[in-house]
């Protein structure tokens, strides 16, 4: 594989990719974009990505698991996480394979509300609207947001 390319270009592309991966996990899509910006030939990029994957230096599954964990820690909901993964070249229909078996999105939505700045409103209706918008902007579904705010009390 690497025999088909200039050894200097091959070494430089591999070194660049490994340097990127040493900082954090990257999806193949992200690495491809970053190596393309460095003006490497598309054939070289694909060969390097294949080589890194075969040596288990790069894994989309490992990237996805780390990404999902970090976003859940930041109290982001499943819709936002799926959208962000899609932007990074990962298409998933279900996040549950990357989460603990006992994960509860509604509980995370409740925690998300308690972590943020206090919601200020003049009446209970506005209070619930603001809470709902906050959860929706963090990527929680309608049912998850409604379950989280049903027990909220306006003070």
What characteristics describe this protein?
155 residues, mainly alpha, Arc Repressor Mutant, subunit A, 3 domains, 63% helix
Protein model, in words:
It is a single chain. By secondary structure, this protein is mainly α. It folds into 3 domains: 2-58, Winged helix-like DNA-binding domain superfamily/Winged helix DNA-binding domain (Arc Repressor Mutant, subunit A), CATH 1.10.10; 62-98; 105-149, no CATH class. Helices cover 63% and strands 0% of the residues. The protein contains 8 helices and no strands. It has helices spanning 7-23, 28-37, 42-54, 60-73, 78-87, 105-115, 124-137, 142-149. Helix 7 (124-137) crosses helix 8 (142-149). It is elongated and about 70 Å long. The N and C termini lie far apart (66 Å). The mean pLDDT is 90.
- The CATH architecture designation of the largest domain is Orthogonal Bundle
Percent in helix: 55-70%
In terms of structural class, how would the helical and strand content be classed? mainly alpha
CA radius of gyration is 21 Å
CATH superfamily of the largest domain: Winged helix-like DNA-binding domain superfamily/Winged helix DNA-binding domain
- Total tally of structural domains: 3
Summarize the helix and strand pattern as letters. HHHHHHHH
Could you tell me how far the N terminus lies from the C terminus, measured between alpha carbons in angstroms? 66 Å
Query: What fold name stands as the CATH topology of the largest domain?
Result: Arc Repressor Mutant, subunit A
Strand content: under 5%
Q: Output the number of helix runs.
A: 8
Quick one: CATH class of the largest domain? Mainly Alpha
């Amino acid at each position: 594989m690497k025999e088909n390319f200039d050894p200097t270009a091959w070494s430089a592309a591999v070194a660049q990719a490994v340097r990127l991966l040493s900082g954090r996990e990257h999806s193949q899509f992200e690495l491809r974009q970053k190596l393309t910006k460095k003006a490497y030939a598309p054939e070289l990029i694909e060969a390097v990505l294949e080589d890194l994957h075969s040596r288990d230096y790069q894994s989309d599954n490992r990237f996805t698991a780390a990404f999902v964990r970090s976003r859940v820690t930041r109290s982001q909901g499943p819709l936002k996480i799926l959208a962000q993964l899609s932007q990074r070249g990962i298409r998933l229909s279900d996040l549950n394979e990357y989460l603990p078996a006992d994960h509860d999105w509604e509980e995370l939505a409740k925690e998300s509300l308690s972590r943020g700045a206090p919601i200020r409103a003049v009446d209970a209706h506005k209070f619930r609207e603001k809470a709902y918008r906050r959860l929706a902007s963090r990527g929680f579904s309608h049912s998850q947001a409604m379950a989280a705010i049903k027990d909220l009390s306006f003070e």
